[in-house]
Every structure is written in structure tokens, then in C-alpha cells.
TrEMBL record:
It is a multi-pass membrane protein. Its main location: membrane. This is TRAP transporter large permease protein. Part of the tripartite ATP-independent periplasmic (TRAP) transport system. The lineage of its organism: Bacteria, Pseudomonadati, Pseudomonadota, Alphaproteobacteria, Hyphomicrobiales. The chain crosses the membrane at residues 49-66, 103-124, 136-163, 169-193, 214-235, 241-259, 280-304, 316-337, 344-364, 370-392, 404-425. It comes from Microbaculum marinum. Keywords: Cell inner membrane, Cell membrane, Membrane, Transmembrane, Transmembrane helix, Transport. The keyword Cytoplasm does not apply. InterPro entries: DctM, TRAP_DctM. Belongs to the TRAP transporter large permease family. One of its GO terms (molecular function) is transmembrane transporter activity.
Length: 440
């Protein structure tokens, strides 16, 4: 009965509009009392600070800032033009451009939310003007944003690596092929739906000049290559790589501001300073929200640790006779359902330390499980009823949230198929890290 009261408290608080960090923190403190562990509350602040005082976490705000600077500095437009040159003339061309642009953007921002916001504002109006329905264009944009946190660099993988003490370099290498496989699945689905609905002849698109487009895109494309190669080959740490990304973002933004037209007469330096100001403000807001959630969720993590819940789950799995693959499928089903209702960061903090150790104890590779967890929970960003990317795309595009939720279902289905394939064939995830000597 006491735990039922806790659940009702959480649901009522969320329904009343309370911030999720506050609800989680309050629920965690109540959990200590209900579990007869209130004597541990005195040491709680020290324990929480020690859990989030991780050097790798510093990479998150730096990568967020780099993505903000690049998006504001014109990188998004340059990458969309490159995608237009490469795949724009295909049937369903602008849909393919949408997906390809997400692949390119993934190597810069590492954030599904950032990619969804940037591409919705840019591509959805263009797709509507070319005969695509607004709902379809918005659904495809939301679905392709899932690629962002999987292809490195990835903010989610940095967080997972710090949380579970797994090599970030190995996670980055492991996310490359799964991210491209998700993109391939979306290309196939867009091609099928474009033919069915008669979207996009491709020939009518006004193509940007190939040479000029490539020149504009090359600086942006070199950034993820340098950053990921530096991390994977051990030249720099993820935090150092994030700092390099910020420096590169500043240089690239200044380059774009120099060559683009400025009808208002502003100088490139003035525009760059404005981008820096706006980027810092946005980064501060996002970083604050992330660490509020981390702080609150760490309380639950402490309770889980002192109650030895992961070991209890491992023993239960062993006694139930669930093998490694069966348990891996089971926890991915749990993650998929949780992603419908929970923020990615919150789900990682609450569920991963609870469920993943038993999977690793059953023989699963830590890097494989990490990539699966990140992909699975990221798909939750486009899964009704509380998909974060769906909400952003709906608000930005003006498409009704319910219609958008229905339109995105085919894309969720293809991404779920890719997830199952990755579960059944772990070599797809592990072949690149193994080739680089990052896993055995």
C-alpha cells in the first residue's frame, strides 16, 4: 500500500505539471523512508555529488555548445545543400535529403533534440512547398533525428560511458554501423511511402551548385572525423575532444559568416559574437536541466545501491533460467516501454544501473548493451504519448500532435526492426570497435 501511495504521488505530480527533476527527487526521498532506509539520508548530499563529479560529464555541455554554434553559424544549411546534391534527385528526394542531413548533423551535434529543432525549421516548409504533406514531412524529420545520438559524437553515449564505466571511444565506434543501419531503414521506408503517396519527383528540385556546396560543407564534415578519430585512437579524451569541437565550431561559424551575404550590414565578428551569446544561453539552460535530472536521479541510484537491487535482479534472472539473449530481449522491451514515458537521461540513470549489470553478468558485451540501450531509449523520443522530439517537431511545424504521432508509427516500426537485428547480431555493433582494438 505504501508503494502504491508513492506511485500515485508521482503520477499526480507529473499530471499537475511539476518539473520531472523535482518529482524524482521528492519520490526518491520518500522511497528511502518507505524502504526503512531513512538513516542514510544524512550522507545523501555527499553521495550524490560524488556520483555526478565525473570529468567525462564536462564533455556534455561542451558538445552542446559546439552544436549550438554550428547550427547558428550556417552549418545546417551547408549540410542540407550537400545532402540535396547527393540524394535530392531520387524519388522522394527531399525525404532522402532529410535523412541524409540527419546523418551529417549527427556527426556535429550528437543530440536528437537539436537535430529535430534545426531540421524542422529548415526542411519541413521546403517539403510542404514541394508537395509533401506537412504531417509526413514532420514525421520523417522526427524519425530521422534518432540518428543523431547514435552516430558519434554522441552526448547520450558520453553520459552512458561515464555512468557505467564503459569506454566512450568503444561506444562511439560501436554506434557507427547501427546509426547507418537506422538511416538505411529510413531510406527504404521513405522510398516505399513516397512511391505510395506520389511524393517528390526529384527532377523539379532546384539543385545547389555541386562545387560551391562541397567547398562549404567540407569544413563541417572534417569536424566529426577529427573529433571521433582523436577519441577512438586515444589522442584526446572525450572532454578534450569536446573543447576542440567548440574551437572548431567558432572557426567554422566565422568562416560561414565571412562568405555569406549580410544585408543588414553587420560584420562577421558581430554576427559571431551574437551566435556565441545565444549559444551560451541555450547551453546553460540545457546543461542546467540535464544536471538537475542527474542530481535527482542519483538519489534513486544510491537507494538501488544500498539495497543491492542489481545483484538481486541478477540472482532472479539466474534462478528463472533466462539466458543471455532472452534477458537482453527482455530489458530492451522494458527500455522501449520506458522510453514512451521517460526522458532519455532519466531512463538511463534509473534503469541502466538497475538492469544492465545482470545482462553483462549473463555474457552480453558492455559496449553492445550500451549502444542498444542508447538507441532504444532514443527511439522513445519519437514514441507516443510523450515523445520529446515529437513535441518539438509538432510545436515548430504546427502539425497536430495526434496526427504526427500516427504518421510516425511506420518509421518507429522500421527502427524497432533495426533494433531487433542489432540485438540478434551483436557483431554489427562490435565489428568496428574490435577492428580498432577497443573490445576483445
Amino acid at each position: 500500500m505504501a508503494w502504491l501511495v508513492l506511485v500515485l504521488f508521482i503520477l499526480a505530480s507529473l499530471a499537475g505539471g511539476a518539473a520531472i527533476a523535482y518529482v524524482t527527487g521528492a519520490a526518491a526521498v520518500l522511497s528511502f523512508i518507505l524502504a526503512d532506509s531513512s538513516r542514510y539520508l544524512a550522507i545523501l548530499p555527499q553521495r550524490i555529488l560524488s556520483q555526478i563529479d565525473v570529468f567525462t560529464f564536462l564533455a556534455m555541455p561542451l558538445f552542446i555548445l559546439a552544436g549550438e554554434l554550428m547550427n547558428r553559424g550556417g552549418v545546417t544549411r551547408a549540410l542540407i545543400d550537400l545532402a540535396m546534391v547527393l540524394v535530392g534527385r531520387m524519388k522522394g528526394g527531399l525525404g532522402h535529403v532529410n535523412i541524409a542531413a540527419s546523418v551529417f548533423m549527427a556527426g556535429i551535434s550528437g543530440s536528437a533534440v537539436a537535430d529535430a529543432a534545426a531540421l524542422t525549421a529548415t526542411l519541413v516548409p521546403e517539403m510542404k512547398a514541394r508537395g509533401y504533406s506537412a504531417t509526413y514531412a514532420a514525421a520523417l524529420t522526427a524519425a530521422s533525428s534518432v540518428i543523431g545520438p547514435i552516430i558519434p559524437p554522441s552526448i547520450v553515449m558520453i553520459f552512458y560511458g561515464a555512468l557505467m564505466n564503459v569506454s566512450v571511444a568503444a561506444l562511439f565506434a560501436g554506434g557507427l554501423l547501427p546509426g547507418l543501419l537506422v538511416a538505411l531503414g529510413l531510406f527504404v521506408m521513405n522510398g516505399i511511402l513516397a512511391r505510395r503517396h506520389g511524393y517528390g519527383t526529384g527532377d523539379a528540385l532546384a539543385m545547389p551548385p555541386a562545387g560551391r556546396t562541397l567547398v562549404r560543407a567540407v569544413p563541417a564534415l572534417f569536424v566529426p572525423v577529427i573529433i571521433v578519430a582523436g577519441i577512438v585512437f586515444g589522442v584526446v579524451t572525450p572532454t578534450e575532444a569536446a573543447a576542440l569541437a567548440v574551437v572548431a565550431a567558432l572557426l567554422i561559424a566565422f568562416f560561414y559568416r565571412t562568405i555569406e551575404a549580410r544585408p543588414d550590414g553587420a560584420t562577421p565578428l558581430t554576427l559571431l559574437l551574437r551566435d556565441i551569446r545565444d549559444g551560451l544561453e541555450r547551453t546553460a539552460v540545457l546543461t542546467g536541466s540535464i544536471f538537475m535530472i542527474l542530481f535527482a536521479a542519483a538519489i534513486f541510484g544510491y537507494l538501488i545501491a544500498i539495497r543491492d537491487v542489481p545483484q538481486a535482479i541478477t540472482d532472479l534472472v539466474g534462478s528463472a533460467g533466462i539466458d543471455g539473449l532472452g534477458y537482453l530481449l527482455l530489458i530492451n522491451l522494458v527500455f522501449f516501454v520506458a522510453g514512451m514515458f521517460m526522458d532519455v537521461t532519466m531512463a538511463l540513470v534509473l534503469l541502466v544501473p538497475l538492469l544492465v549489470p545482470a545482462a553483462i553478468a549473463s555474457g552480453a558485451d558492455p559496449v553492445h548493451v550500451g549502444v542498444l540501450s542508447c538507441l532504444n531509449l532514443t527511439i522513445g523520443l519519437i514514441t507516443p504519448p510523450f515523445g520529446g522530439c515529437l513535441m518539438i517537431v509538432s510545436a515548430t511545424s504546427g502539425v497536430n500532435y495526434l496526427r504526427l504521432s500516427l504518421a510516425v508509427l511506420p518509421f518507429i516500426a522500421i527502427e524497432a526492426v533495426v533494433l531487433v537485428v542489432l540485438i540478434l547480431f551483436p557483431d554489427i555493433t562490435l565489428v568496428v570497435p574490435a577492428a580498432l582494438g577497443l573490445v576483445e
